[in-house]
Amino acid sequence: MSYASLMVHVDADSELSGRVNIAADLAERFRAHLIGVAGWAPMSVFLANEALVDMTPNVPELQSMKSLLDLKGKQFCAAVAKEGRRQAEWRSALDFPTEALAREARAADLVIIGNERENRDPFRALDPGSFLLKAGRSVLVVPTSVTSLSPKRIAIAWKDVREARRAVQDALPFLLQADSVMIVEVAQTNEANQASHHLEDVTTYLTRHRINAVAQRIRPAEVAVTESLLQLIHDENINLIVGGAYGHSRLGEWVFGGVTRELLVESPICCLFSH
């Protein structure tokens, strides 16, 4: 089992980020096709004291935006082609980046995005939380400071819900290549026996997929779940976290449980989420 097609989001108006290099390396690792995607929505024009003005941007503006996206595509393909890597495909749209990438995600097994959220212009920048809810695909979230990924030591943040089950299956190509896999559940003392049963089932499932270097950890719920996971990352030298993205859309905004939201913002390593 492997990924046949990877997709990476490229910011329309900033330098190519480390996640592009990660995406290219993963495409080589999995011998997968790589697609770069960027979106940039024309800004509608409103005047405060007047009626709605023509919302259609003028043609020269659209042509200029399209030219800049085409240039970004050439830069992306050139960067990916370095060091003998296979050629990549480029797609762009004059649309909100979150919407454009979610639509294009139909062509990929795994989508790679950044985690930037603060002060981001929705016309030009991706909203990672909203995208996680809309993608319908597993999503690899790459922190801004991360420029490479060697997923040898993987932690599965387990919770016995649909999203976590989906995430484990979606992550199988990574898990099959890992040196060690750790399944972690944070549980109250009176839930430890039940948690142990859950982890045994997940371990058996992975073993049947020929993933044998599996360890189990039940961490006490004495501190916040995210804090416990972040400490685990440090103590066990974890390279990649796999987990479910628990959330829903409310009035057009993304609403996640605390662990998902905090990992999106605070994790120092890449996280593979499924929703």
Secondary structure elements and pairings:
Elements: E1 5-9, H1 18-30, E2 33-39, H2 59-80, E3 89-93, H3 97-104, E4 110-114, H4 128-134, E5 138-142, E6 153-157, H5 162-170, H6 172-177, E7 180-187, H7 192-208, E8 214-220, H8 225-236, E9 240-244, E10 247-250, E11 253-256, H9 258-266, E12 270-274
Helix pairs in contact: 3-4
Short description:
This protein has 275 residues and is α/β, with parallel strands linked by helices. Helix content is 37%, strand content 24%.
Please characterize this protein's 3D structure.
The structure is a single chain. The chain contains nine helices and twelve strands. With 275 residues, the protein is of the alpha/beta class. The chain folds into two domains: 5-142, 3-Layer(aba) Sandwich (Rossmann fold), CATH 3.40.50.620; 153-274, HUPs (Rossmann fold, 3-Layer(aba) Sandwich), CATH 3.40.50. A ten-stranded mixed sheet has the order 3-2-1-4-5-12-9-6-7-8, with helices on both faces. The longest helix is centred in the first third of the chain and has 22 residues, at 59-80. 40% of the residues are buried. The model is unreliable at 45-55 and 251-256 (pLDDT under 50).
